Amino acid sequence: MQEDIKELVNKGEMLPLMEEFYTIQGEGFHKGTAAYFVRIGGCDVGCHWCDVKESWNATLHPPTHTNKIVDNAASYSNTVVVTGGEPLTWDMGPLTKQFKEKGMQVHIETSGAYKLSGTWDWICLSPKKIKLPQPEIYEVAHELKVIIFNKDDFRFAEEQAAKVNKDCILYLQPEWSNRDKMIPLMVDYVMKNPAWKVSLQTHKYLNIP
User: Fold this and answer.
1) pLDDT averaged over the chain?
2) Which residues are annotated as a binding site?
3) Binding positions for substrate
């Protein structure tokens, strides 16, 4: 990467853009609503069941000026979801500033493994055991989404729920490849622990991105 481009990426004025697309939000609180998704490359959390492992290596994705990303999103929707990879690997300040200048609703889906940057209307915190969230994000997360791959993930979910703010909505979501095994356990768990809600990847059932 050229030094001048590398400097712009480090400042958050360019970002490794993996993909961008207009679709229906499939998960969590805003499921069923239209939104423009911006997937930023780069992640070292390394979940073995990740369904976008091609996002991990940031060098595979072209550094793109944030104003171009913002213009593309604004031409489709008033709501944008920034995801990854792990978007907080990078400084999200310049990107979200431009989104807000256009009057957009700006959401993020993050593991919280890196310092929170940017201005957000909705923060979906999806913590991972491998690299735990930074402490400050628990206070501002709007929803906690814990992926359930095995029985120990219920323990981890409660551990994480004890750290979030009182208004944070709690979701359990089955890991897609293990959903048939885990959904019955999740249903039973939520019925016994009604502070939690079930989240499903409805976009996969709908066969959309």
Assistant:
1) 96
2) 24-26, 39, 43, 47, 49-51, 83, 85, 126-128, 209
3) 24-26, 39, 83, 209
Which of 190, 129, 136, 192 shows the shortest CA–CA distance to 164?
Answer: 136
User: pTM score > 0.70 for this model?
Assistant: yes
Q: At what angle do helices 66-74 and 93-101 cross, to 10 degrees?
A: 40
Per the annotation, binding residues for [4Fe-4S] cluster are 43, 47, 50
- Enumerate residues 6+ apart whose C-beta is below 8 A from 170: 143, 144, 146, 157, 161, 164, 195, 196, 197
Q: Quick one: tokens of 64?
A: 């793109």
Q: Is the separation of the CB atoms in 161 and 186 below 8 Å?
A: no
Mean pLDDT to the nearest integer, 183-204: 97
What pLDDT, in 10s, does the model give residues 66-90?
999 999 999 999 999 999 999 999 9
Under the banding of pLDDT at 50, 70 and 90, the label for residue 1 is low
**What share of the chain has pLDDT > 90, as a percent?**
93
Q: What structural domains and CATH numbers belong to the chain? A: 3-205 (3.20.20.70)
